[in-house]
TrEMBL record:
High-level lineage: Bacteria, Bacillati, Actinomycetota, Actinomycetes, Mycobacteriales
Family: Belongs to the aldehyde dehydrogenase family.
Matching PROSITE patterns: ALDEHYDE_DEHYDR_GLU
Domain of life: Bacteria
Keywords: Oxidoreductase
Protein name per the record: Putative aldehyde dehydrogenase
InterPro entries, sorted: Ald_DH/histidinol_DH, Ald_DH_C, Ald_DH_CS_GLU, Ald_DH_N, Aldehyde_DH_dom
Gene3D superfamilies the UniProt entry points to: Aldehyde Dehydrogenase, Chain A, domain 1 (3.40.605.10), Aldehyde Dehydrogenase, Chain A, domain 2 (3.40.309.10)
Organism whose genome encodes this protein: Gordonia malaquae NBRC 108250
GO molecular function terms noted in the UniProt entry: oxidoreductase activity, acting on the aldehyde or oxo group of donors, NAD or NADP as acceptor
Domain Aldehyde dehydrogenase per the UniProt entry, residue ranges: 16-476
Active site: 253
Length: 485
């Protein structure tokens, strides 16, 4: 462990400034308990200063009037800088939230820079203006940046989430004030400096670390035009209500309880590694985790045996240990929540066919891979988002029943179908009420829309759809009889 990063200033408008707040956020490793660093906890005055800088820069047009191709070039330069400093950034993220450096590199850095590159491509290819001919002749349709964006992100994949908020906002020409989770603020400061170095003008970007009150100040600020939030459904509901009172644009990427539907013709041995990984990636601390595995009753034992064999190799431990495949749970509170769900599953009659012992090293906030069988879809572990490495296997008799079970959820964020017949897999996927599906694996494609149905959120990220959520659409009606050609 290197010396803690003690930051005494806030990154406001692309500059380090003294905070108004006297409160400090201290960051400790969820794996070892060692101090990773500290930052000021921004108060309402600090948030106001950040929003004012964003408002002034937006109104002055220093970024929104920059041609899209030039904005794209700056984003691509940021990608280069992130990759150049990948080891340093990865080590910091790993220290803050506990994932192994390898998982940070693949699930966060590769995914995050992929999103940034896709948004740069979208900015260049997007049709910012078009002429339409309608009832009264020609109308010029113009797409413009929505304005000042307040972005609030979670702690589970902070590098990826940072990129997936900055990417579309900056590609659209917006100014951004981002509030990182109090558990993982240090990497946000580092990344913001990288974007400034890449060429984002002064005033356009700010970081306001803090907890709930900091977030409320950002959501409620009258000069914030749009809120984008990634986190829990409960917090998202509160944010949506506050934005609704103000008629403020809002997009929400929330929780999930995704179903992996294994069809009768699936290859159990070939499917098991990715099937298990999709359920317990990032120690299960992923909104897209495929935590309900639906299997045909006729092949139940075979598929479970294959999953158990794979999951048994996912060793929990310190992220610095080369043998570790699962890092710690983020904190004691979340650890207690996850272990409470495991106990609840047993109380309600499910059978834990796998419980990998958790190590006693470091903080002790470790949970080994856990697989339950005998689960019915009305059980707590099948309905609520656990956010830990816990998989519930649910048996079904026919495909229609599997689809019904998959759709019997308050959530609709992700899912997958496992089959040797891709066309059949697509047919099933189309019947599941969820925002993203994979066939024989799961991933978030940076060029395709990502978001949820039902309580999994509002709006879409990634691709053209993600860019459009940061735009306003203006129609300029030409005089009757006017022709632009």
């Amino acid at each position: 462990m290197t010396d803690p990063i003690e930051t005494t200033q806030l990154y406001i408008g692309g500059k380090w400034v003294d905070p108004h707040s006297t409160e400090v956020l201290e960051v400790f490793s969820p794996a070892t308990g060692e101090k990773v660093g500290s930052v000021p906890s921004a108060d309402a005055t600090d948030v106001d200063n950040a929003v004012r800088a964003a408002r002034e820069s937006f109104d002055a047009g220093v970024w929104r009037n920059t041609p899209p191709a030039e904005r794209a070039a700056v984003i691509r330069r940021a990608v280069e800088l992130i990759n150049e400093r990948g080891a340093e950034i990865g080590a910091l993220v790993s220290a803050e939230m506990g994932a192994t450096p390898g998982d940070v590199a693949t699930l966060q850095q590769l995914a995050g820079t992929g999103c940034l590159a896709a948004y740069a491509d979208a900015a260049e290819s997007y049709q910012w203006e078009e002429t339409r001919t309608g009832m009264f002749g020609e109308t010029l349709v113009v797409r413009e940046a929505v304005g000042v964006v307040g972005a609030i992100i979670a702690w589970n994949v902070p590098l990826f989430l940072f990129c997936n908020k900055f990417g579309p906002a900056l590609a659209a020409g917006c100014s951004v004030v981002l509030k990182p989770a109090p558990e993982t603020p240090l990497n946000a400061n580092m990344l913001a400096e990288i974007f400034s170095e890449a060429g984002v003008p002064e005033g356009v970007i700010s970081i306001v670390p803090g907890g709930v009150e900091t977030g409320k100040a950002l959501v409620d600020h009258p000069d914030v035009d749009k809120i984008t939030f990634t986190g829990s459904t409960l917090a998202g509901q509160s944010i949506a209500a506050r934005c609704g009172e103000q008629l403020k644009r809002v997009s929400l990427e929330l929780g999930g309880k995704s179903a992996a539907i294994v069809l009768e013709d699936a290859d159990a041995a070939a499917s098991a590694p990715m099937l298990v990984f999709s359920g317990i990636l990032n120690s299960g601390q992923a909104c897209v985790a495929q935590t309900r595995v639906l299997v045909p009753r006729s092949r139940h034992d075979e598929i479970v045996d294959a999953m158990v064999a794979v999951a048994s190799t996912f060793t929990p431990g310190l992220p610095t240990d080369p043998e570790t495949k699962l890092g710690p749970i983020i904190n004691e509170k979340q650890h207690a929540k996850v272990t409470g769900y495991i106990a609840k599953g047993k109380e309600e009659g499910a059978t834990a066919v796998l419980e990998v012992d958790a190590p006693t090293v470091g903080t002790g906030n470790f949970v080994g891979p856990t697989i339950f069988t005998g689960v019915t879809n009305d059980m707590t572990i099948a309905r609520e988002e656990i956010f830990g490495p816990v998989i519930s296997v649910i048996a079904y008799d026919d495909v229609d029943e599997a689809i019904k079970i998959a759709n019997d959820s308050d959530y609709g964020l992700a899912g997958s179908v496992w089959t040797s017949d891709v066309a059949k897999g697509v047919e099933v996927a189309k019947q599941v009420r969820t925002g993203t599906m994979g066939i024989n694996w799961y991933a978030i494609d940076p060029s395709s829309p990502f978001g949820g149905y039902k309580k999994s959120g509002i709006g879409r990220e990634n691709g053209k759809e993600g860019l459009e959520s940061y735009l306003e659409h203006k129609a300029i009606l030409m005089p009757m009889g006017y022709t632009s050609a």
